[in-house]
Amino acid sequence: MKKEVEALSKLSNKHIVKMYEYFPHPKSDKLVVLMEYLRGGELYEYWHRFPKRLMPENEAKEIVRQLLLAIDYCHAKKIIHRDLKF
């Protein structure tokens, strides 16, 4: 986990949530990660708001475009995301 947050801390792209800080939890072996607040919630929750999960094509196209730009940026930085899902 520490390796992943260290990689995230090196990224700066408008399509990737910003990570501000991370530190060990004082009373457990967990890692606390402070990240940018994104109004609107997670993409999965957003998708569930559409009747029968049918998002308008133009909107889906824009989301996929932004995801691909973020992935391309990560790959250019020699970072591969191992758990992409929707």
Sketch the topology as an H/E string, one letter per element. HEEHH
Whole-number radius of gyration?
15 Å
Main pleated sheet = 2 strands, antiparallel
Average pLDDT value? 89
Given the C-alpha coordinates, what overall shape results? globular
Number of domains: 1
How much of the sequence lies in strands comes to 5-15%
Q: Which segments are poorly predicted (pLDDT under 50) over 5 or more consecutive residues?
A: none
Q: How many runs of DSSP E, i.e. beta strands? A: 2
Q: How far is the first residue's CA from the last residue's CA?
A: 21 Å
Strand order in the sheet with the most strands: 1-2
Count of helical stretches: 3
The structure class reads alpha+beta
The percent range for helix content is 25-40%
Written account of the structure:
The structure is a single chain. The protein is α+β, with helices and mostly antiparallel strands and 86 residues long. The chain has one domain. The chain is 40% helix and 13% strand. It is built from three helices and two strands, in the order αββαα. Strands 1-2 form a two-stranded antiparallel ribbon. The mean pLDDT is 89.
Present the secondary structure layout.
Layout: H1 2-9, E1 19-24, E2 31-35, H2 43-48, H3 57-76
Antiparallel strand pairs: 1-2
Summary of the model, kept short:
This protein is an alpha+beta fold and 86 residues long. The chain contains three helices and two strands.
Offer a few descriptive terms:
two-stranded antiparallel ribbon; alpha+beta
